Amino acid sequence: MKIASALMLNEHQRGLIKAVCPDAQILCPTERLRNPVVWDSEVLDPLIKDADVFIGHRARPGLAEFAPRLRWIQFLGAGIDHLKITDLLQQDRIILTNASGVSATWIAEYVLASMLLFTHRFHVTMAAQRRHEWIGFTSFMAGVEAIRGKTVGILGYGSIGRETARLCQAHSMEVLALKRNPHHRADNSWVRPGIGDPDGTIPSRWFGPDQRSQILALSDYVVVSLPLTPDTRHFLGRREFDAVKRGAYLVNVGRGPIIDQPAMIEALKDGRLSGAGLDVTDPEPLNAESELWDMENVILTPHSSGARRTYYDVGCELFAENLRRFISGAELINQIDRQHCY
């Protein structure tokens, strides 16, 4: 079996694969790609042309025809909105799996960090620090609260949302969950032991997409961890921000276009939202003229909430498990729903 990889796999990562398939021929770049989320045809085309399996972040247009032996692609990210430029969603002969669950722990920690930063008003004190200004304790204390006892509404109850829920529950928060089908509460994506909410027992209430105004009205913190699909583009717009609980905080770790950005900015200005932690924006990179750069109640990070040195080690754990299933003919984990595009 030929396995083409967009990564320069290290010995540990190769070992995970070889333990499952000792005879695998693993084809990798000889140098690290400058940008792993952009298809480098000069490097990757020769590797994938005769491959049976591919592991990487992206695919290119015409890949199914170019690589006729290809039977399975393991993507190393959870979002698959990049596939709209390819025909792979229409190619049933190629199994598509994503990396849902690989970065759930780190992104959930990012969400909690954002919530705590706002609650303890670090965004205010750090801005004052840059101005060399000492904020008076008495006036500052009036704006500080605790997340304990607050309500968090999680929009998108996949692996990231479920691990966020677990961490929030540990802080005695009430958890509300929204998902496409709120009656299907169990999670069948890949998770490491002890992570997330596999059986969907943490939320006290469940909501469907048409109930998003209700969940927003109840939530002190709103976490967006939805995939970007035709149904979720501008999922939160002016109508939703009109319904949001006044003074709530928003954290978006999904995709920028899920939110109508001008409507969010308006809500941040008039106090409907007290703050927003944004790991994703629309567009990316955020244009230099955007008001978000200079808003004191906004945290901006460069789509980095899932970044970690060992990301690819964990990604290869998932790949090795799926490879074992692929060889045995069992159903693979994290198969992409072609109908709903995630």
Q: TL;DR?
A:
This protein has 11 helices and 12 strands. With 342 residues, it is an alpha/beta fold.
Describe this structure in words.
The structure is a single chain. This protein is α/β, with parallel strands linked by helices. It is built from eleven helices and twelve strands. Strands 8-7-6-9-10-11-12 form a seven-stranded parallel sheet, sandwiched between helices. The chain has a five-stranded parallel sheet with strand order 2-1-3-4-5, with helices on one face.
Draw up the topology in text.
Elements: E1 2-5, H1 11-20, E2 25-27, H2 41-48, E3 53-56, H3 63-66, E4 72-75, E5 95-97, H4 104-119, H5 122-130, H6 137-141, E6 151-155, H7 159-170, E7 174-178, E8 205-207, H8 212-218, E9 221-224, H9 238-243, E10 248-252, H10 261-270, E11 273-278, E12 298-300, H11 311-328
Parallel strand pairs: 1-2, 1-3, 3-4, 4-5, 6-7, 6-9, 7-8, 9-10, 10-11, 11-12
Helix pairs in contact: 1-11, 4-7
Strand content: 5-15%
Under the CATH scheme, the architecture of the largest domain is 3-Layer(aba) Sandwich
What's the overall geometry?
globular
The whole-number mean of residue pLDDT values reads 94
Strand order of the largest sheet: 8-7-6-9-10-11-12
Low-confidence stretches: none
Tell me roughly what share of residues is in helical segments: 25-40%
Helix run count: 11
CATH class label of the largest domain = Alpha Beta
Question: Largest sheet at a glance?
Answer: 7 strands, parallel
Number of domains: 2
The SSE order reads EHEHEHEEHHHEHEEHEHEHEEH
In angstroms, what is the radius of gyration? 21 Å
Q: What is the β-strand count?
A: 12
Superfamily (CATH H level) name of the largest domain: NAD(P)-binding Rossmann-like Domain
Cα distance, first to last residue? 28 Å
Task: Kindly report the CATH topology of the largest domain.
Answer: Rossmann fold
**Which structural class best describes the helix and strand composition?**
alpha/beta
